[in-house]
Amino acid sequence: MLQIVIDIQRDIYLALAEHIKAFAAGGSWAAFLGFLPLGIVFGAVHAMTPGHSKSILATYLTGSSAGVGHGLLVSLALSFTHVTTAVLIAWFSLPLVSRMLGSAGDTPALENISRGLLGLIGLWMLWSAFFRHPHVHGDKEGLTVGMMAGLIPCPLTLFVMTFSMSRGVPVAGLLFAVVMMLGVIFTLSLTALTVVVFRQQVVRLLAARPRLISGLSKSIEAVAGFILVAIAIREILLR
Which range of residues forms the domain containing residue 161? Predict the structure, then answer.
């Protein structure tokens, strides 16, 4: 299954490269814009591959009291930050990418910052589980978690932006990044919805036992916090 996803992603990327070349050589807007909708498929498929903080998204939503709207907000913030960070790096720092970041798509400083911030969120969830009364996780918290998790830039967006800018048509890369982000949003939102709905169904089944639900919620929040801290430490140490 993973190989199929990788093959689809590769085929779309190669086709995109040819369209950017043709557009840079004087091709029509109509031909390029006609290809753009495939960017949504590209983004959705790309987000299915390992990475993209899906495990972090699922862990946070499992341990929180987030509803459907809250879960979608977290996935939207994560997707937007993930793609936009790559666009900004390419747009403003292209001449320094290889020197400052090591290689295209590899940004260890941002990755460490992201993991460190998520580690702090994990510590907060642990503290909340053991010392705070049951509470509802607000939208601002979800927005913050999504942005922290999305700080790691999307490598393929960075590649596309770099390629289009090297061909003198940065607008082509920017347009593709926008439609690609729609696909990433679709996949991450589907992940968020699945986790939230599953958790809500479990809570409904246990609705007749409020003390059990309270204890279970605290336990899940503590486990989620521990996992976030563990992920942060592991990712930073393995850099």
Answer: 2-237
Q: Are 179 and 40 in contact (CB under 8 A)?
A: yes
pTM: 0.71
Burial of 114 (0-12, 13-18, 19+ CB in 10 A): buried
- 189 vs 79: CA distance, rounded Å: 9
Give the percent of the chain with pLDDT over 70.
71
pLDDT digits (tens, 9 = 90+) for 123-159: 766 776 677 655 555 567 777 778 877 777 787 888 8
Which residue from 137, 117, 173, 139 is spatially nearest to 63, judged by alpha carbons? 137
Pick the closest to residue 82 from 110, 124, 112, 45 (CA basis): 110
Count of structural domains within the chain: 1
